[in-house]
Design a protein that fits this description.
The chain is mainly beta and about 200 residues long. The chain is about 5% helix and about 40% strand. The chain is built from one helix and 14 strands; from the N terminus they run ββββββββββββββα. A hairpin with a 2-residue loop joins β2 and β3.
Length: about 200
């Protein structure tokens, strides 16, 4: 495991995720919700090794310097992974009439296909838009991300997520979304629409 500058990444948390596994991304570290068989922290040389798991699909890696994912569904011997720097995400949530959507709780999420067996990474933490509707996320993983509005649902403090927008996050920079219209997400990427039609 390498840092963005190519040096060994000591202290990176790695999860070897299996079919339909759920886990968390809390700040700049990955956290396992269950057993430790597919979870470790790299030592000074950045090297890591896992026994092959029959339903192992993907490696998720987080470190204060960055983040990376790698599919190992077809094997993963002698991998050399380099972390990509965390990103920042900013924008302004507005209603359809252009006025600021203030004090709205937002969180981030990743796409997954449960029927296909994708692992599910829950990005921990939420933010609230300010009086002008502005929002700011830090330590954003450089990948396809959804920005969701959090809505209380039922009793017991549960909530549901309503997509506001999505983007492919560029690493190491501030990704500026500009104005995001409340509960009016853009169409999904064309490749995702095609996959959905094909049942992939």
């Amino acid at each position: 495991m390498l840092l963005p500058d190519g040096k060994p990444a000591s202290g990176a948390t790695i999860l070897y995720a299996v079919l339909q596994e759920q886990f968390g991304l809390n700040g700049t570290s990955v956290s396992s919700y269950g057993g430790k068989e597919g979870f470790l922290t790299t030592k000074a040389d950045g090297k890591f090794s896992f026994p092959r798991l029959s339903k192992g699909l993907k490696l998720f890696v987080a470190h204060p310097s960055g983040y990376v994912e790698e599919s190992v569904e077809r094997g993963g011997d002698n991998l050399k992974l380099r972390l990509k720097p965390w990103a920042t995400l900013t924008g302004t949530l507005v209603y359809s009439n252009g006025t600021a959507a203030a004090n709205v709780p937002l969180d981030l999420a990743i796409d997954y296909n449960w029927q296909r067996g994708d692992p599910i990474m829950h990005i921990q933490g939420k933010i609230v838009t300010d009086a002008q509707g502005n929002f700011l996320f830090t330590n954003v993983p450089p990948r396809h991300i959804q920005v969701n509005r959090m809505q209380t649902s039922g009793f017991g403090g549960g909530y549901s997520s309503i997509q506001q927008t999505w983007l492919d996050v560029s690493p190491g920079v501030t990704n500026e979304l500009g104005k995001v219209t409340y509960d009016t997400p853009p169409p999904a990427p064309m490749i995702d629409q095609i996959k959905q039609k094909l049942g992939l």
